[in-house]
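Protein modeling request. Please complete all fields; requests missing the sequence field cannot be processed.
Requester role: graduate student
Desired output: 3D structure, token encoding
Chains: 1
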Amino acid sequence: MDKGHRGLLTLVKRRNSLTSFNQSEIRRNIGTKGSSKGVHTAQKQLPKFLGSLANDAPFFLALKPFKHRVAITDRDGDFTYEELFKRSFYLSLEIKKALRNQESKNQRINLICPNGVSYVIGQWAIWMSGNCCVPLSGQHSTNALEYYIKDSDSVLVITAPSTVDKVGEVCQKIGKPVICQDPNLVAHTNIDIEDAGPFPSLIFDERLYPKNKPAMMLYLPGDKPQKLLLKHQDLNREMNLVRNFWDLDETSSLLHSMSLYNPFGIVDSLMSPLSAGGRVVLLSQFDTTKVWSHLLGLQCNGTYLPRTDVYAGVPTHYESLIKKYQEVLKEKKMKEFVRESCSKRIKLMVNGVEPINPDLHAQWTHITGHTIKLY
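Delivered output (375 residues):
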């Protein structure tokens, strides 16, 4: 297996501390303890961001050349970069209104949205309002959500129509204000928000994005969840590394079926393709039939599927896809079709979070002709 570069944000727990895989191999590490107990911040031993945006600014400010390109495709349809920007700006005004009595900027705001455009709109809106995004999963139990919301010391919770009942119940219990995104914002409908200004708008003040303040706080898995604080410069540098290693550009289209909760699912597999002006096809959840349909360019239940040429998964996904393949495909011609289609249509398949079993990798290579890159 070609291990390639291990991801900046791919962390494991060793001896009750967080370290990155093979630090000497990748020459970068984000698992350095900060001054606060249980909180990890990023080192500065990283290459400079090579894009046109400032190293400490949100990456969407550099996306003007791609304003008319499709950025996100989810079950509600296609959304261009300009549409995402304007919808996020609209939500950012609601956030500012909700926090108008707050004395300081860069407050922590929980984002609890399903896989889809609502997540991207929420993330960008939090940054547009000058605050720190703390993503949580709607799949958490109510007790877990209550713990994370309290532990994150957030001032507000942003959620989507499909998760508002569960999230609202928790927030009401602990007395935390919550904003549910307008259904029109997250649906593929024409909405009149022209007053948001040009793309990107000149309303942004660099003081909204202080260099020494975090832009995102992530919870890393483990018996005792650890917090990872990331500044915009940390996120930008990681996205640059991923873009270079995966060879992403505005023509790239990545199939995404992972949780929007861990670093690999959020920063590497969602934000990095977007920072290149590419498209991300966001599945609401991992589904073997839908993933195979995308990889092979087949219609799924009569529905048109956009082209994808990059697939990012985790070991359990590849294992499930192999199992589905073995259950359904028996004939030699069909197996040949799968290998030929994957070889021609997909330019890259990557695995994150943890190493993949060598036997599983060998099976996947035999089926698709692809060597899975471990990032």
